[in-house]
């Protein structure tokens, strides 16, 4: 691979990371705003005030905060070794999973389908990323 081809390869991969990082940050912002709006509506200054709805909203945000940083780190490292397509598949599945999970957390009946699918679409891309990173360590 020539230097120009390598630069193009890495630029495209890192642009893919930028897309999924940006969308993940927007998702975190939206989930945070949902907490603020819920607290305002329910007149709760901190915590959940014993409101199940606010507990679920807070956990949806907290759960995303637990998964997003390590996934973004994995995507950055993957971009060194793999194509933009790989980054898009893993990043897209992950972000879709986080959206489904957050939506499912807000459902009255639990466990909700969105929550379960969301966790599957969180874990599967993480497993794929982990395996690809292990493979890359031997390249």
UniProtKB/TrEMBL annotation:
Subcellular compartments:
Membrane
Q: Which PANTHER family match?
A: GLUTATHIONE S-TRANSFERASE-RELATED (PTHR35814:SF1), PTHR35814
List the taxonomic lineage. Bacteria, Pseudomonadati, Pseudomonadota, Alphaproteobacteria, Caulobacterales
Q: Which Pfam families match?
A: MAPEG
The answer, when asked if Transmembrane helix is one of the entry's keywords, is yes
Q: Which residues cross the membrane?
A: 17-37, 67-96, 116-138
Give the domain of life.
Bacteria
Identify the SUPFAM superfamilies for this entry: MAPEG domain-like
The primary location reported for this protein is membrane
Q: Provide a GO CC annotation, any one.
A: membrane
Keywords, A to Z, come to: Membrane, Transmembrane, Transmembrane helix
Q: What's the protein here called? A: Glutathione S-transferase
């Amino acid at each position: 691979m020539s230097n120009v081809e390598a630069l193009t390869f890495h630029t495209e991969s890192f642009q893919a990371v930028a897309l999924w990082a940006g969308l993940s940050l927007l998702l975190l912002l939206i989930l945070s705003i949902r907490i603020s709006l819920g607290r305002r509506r329910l007149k709760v200054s901190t915590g959940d005030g014993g409101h199940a709805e606010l507990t679920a909203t807070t956990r949806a945000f907290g759960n995303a905060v637990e998964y997003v940083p390590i996934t973004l780190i994995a995507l950055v490292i993957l971009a060194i070794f793999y194509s933009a397509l790989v980054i898009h598949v893993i990043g897209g599945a992950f972000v879709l999973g986080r959206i489904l999970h957050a939506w499912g957390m807000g459902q009255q009946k639990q466990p909700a389908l969105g929550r379960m699918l969301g966790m599957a679409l969180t874990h599967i891309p993480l497993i794929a990323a982990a395996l690809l990173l292990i493979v890359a360590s031997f390249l």
